[in-house]
Every structure is written in structure tokens, then in C-alpha cells.
Amino acid sequence: MTQPALIRRDRLGEYLRTALSLAARGIPPLPLRAGKVPFGNCRTCKGNACGGRPNMKNAGPCECASVCHAWAAATTDPRVLASPAWASAWREAAAVAYHPGGAGLTVVDLDDEAAIAWAREALPATRTVPTTRGEHWIYRGAMQSANAVRPGVDLKSTMSYARWLGPGTGTTAPLPEAVRALAVKKPAPARPAQPLVTPPALASGGECRHRTPVYLERGIAMAEQRITDARSAVHATVYRTFLAVLSAHGRCGCLTDTHIIRLFAAAQAKGESPRHCTDAWANARTALGM
After folding, report:
1. Residues contacting residue 28 through CB under 8 Å, at least 6 positions apart
2. Is 153 helix (H, G, I), strand (E, B) or coil?
């Protein structure tokens, strides 16, 4: 047996023992590859085409037994962790991670000395784990995860993972409101309302060819369908569709509030916010010099 093979076997045993120990304590582990990142999706599950794992947001029908679902692959089932489908991942792994939210925990990831100093002033003492550059402060209670909530501070809980670096020291305290408040997005400053399309009058005074009801209706219906059919890059699709509509109908007075409402409704049905619709419309007008 070659030396690399021995190393891989030892690594499999070490990481799997750690994972099984975590699972027995109700902490769902998963392997990380080099770079402290989860294993990529398999071909069947690439782009979440499978619908997702049962413990993912918007759970789907995926029955994949591999580790390809990032944080959502984390499990406390020892049969899955020790299964042949996971063996190659443990051999190739560079570290063990866990899903804090799945264990009812929140990790305040402090990246540097300044962040640690802030935590000591602002947060109650809790279980602390040293990291390469800073510390993990672990609290009892789950919340939404958020990155860069302040300089050098990330929050890892639901739909996230943290590297397992040992049990740490101290007693795990309840999750304080001061940590929850860090994930609350502050409202953006109020922006002036963008006016709807107000195109200039026709210079020739003639009848606009776009006023043909069938022509205009077909254009709006096609735009709605283009947005509805988007399976990815919805933001970009909405913007490009608005740009196309304004390019064809925005300068001749064809568009009415009713048409614009229809386009916004199609975009919002795909998950776009009213604010994003307004911004995309305004950006399209600016791009066209309107």
C-alpha cells in the first residue's frame, strides 16, 4: 500500500470518528474539502435541479445519498455518515464542519483582534473556540445567518456551516438579542419616487404605429411570458425585458400605467420586490436616455 493511501485511510478514520461523535451529541456534521468549502453538487443535483434536500429551504424530493448539498447534507444519522456514498468524501476531506442551526446554535465568527475586543465589550460571555485568526463565540439558540454584520464579524446558524475546531471553553449562554439585532437589515435611506414613463409628444404629430392594439398587446404578453419563464438570473431577465419594452414602446406614448402594472406583477410573481422592479424600470429608462 502506498503512503498516500495510508494517509487517506487514516484521514477517513479520524474525520469519521469526529463526525460520529458530533452526531451522537445532536450536532449535524459534514466534510469540507480543501479551502474550507463543502463538496460540489453531483451532476444530478447541479444547480439544485433535483429540488433540494429535505432539510433545505424549499425542500424538494431529492433522495441523493451523497454529501453534495453543502450545509444541507449535514446529518446526525450515523448510517448516512458511515455509508459507502460518504466514504470517498471523508478520505478527500480537509476538515470537519457542522450545521450550527441544525443543532440549535449560533456561531459569532470573530475574524480579528478588533472584532474580539468588540465582542468582549458588547456581548455576554459564552463558550469560546479559538480559530486561526480569531474566535468563535457559540450561543444556544438558532437564527438567520448573515455575513459582515460589522467589521470582522459573521453570524453562522441556519443554512450555514462552521468548521469544527473542538469543544472550546466556557458555558454556552442563551442567544442574546444583541446578536439577533446584528442580522436585522437597517432600512435604506428614502429615495425619491421614480416617475412612470412620460415620453415626449410625437414630433410629427402623426399616429403612432405602436398604438395598434394587437401589436402592443402582443408585445406586453411576450414580455410577461419572458419573465414568467425565467428559471435563473431573474434580476437580469427582468431588467432586460423592461429595457426591450421601453425601447419598443417607451418613446411614443403607447405605454399606460396598466401595462406597467402588468409587467411589475409578472416580476413580483417571480420573487422580485416592488423596489427592485422600480429600480430596474428606472435603470432601463436611464440606459435609453429617457
Report:
1. 22, 74, 75, 76, 98, 99, 102, 103
2. strand
Closest CA to 264 of 229, 203, 210, 223: 223
* Max CA separation in the chain (angstroms): 88
The answer to whether 30 and 67 are in contact (CB under 8 A) is yes
Task: Tell me the C-alpha distance between 75 and 99, whole Å.
Answer: 9
Cα dist. 48→57, 158, 159 in Å?
11, 18, 15
Instruction: Note the pTM of the prediction, 2 decimals.
Output: 0.62
pLDDT tens-digit map of 218-267: 888 888 888 888 877 777 888 888 888 888 777 776 777 778 888 888 88
Q: What is the CA radius of gyration of the chain?
A: 26
- What is the rounded CA–CA span in Å between residue 274 and residue 238? 12
Q: Which three cell numbers stand for residue 3?
A: 503512503
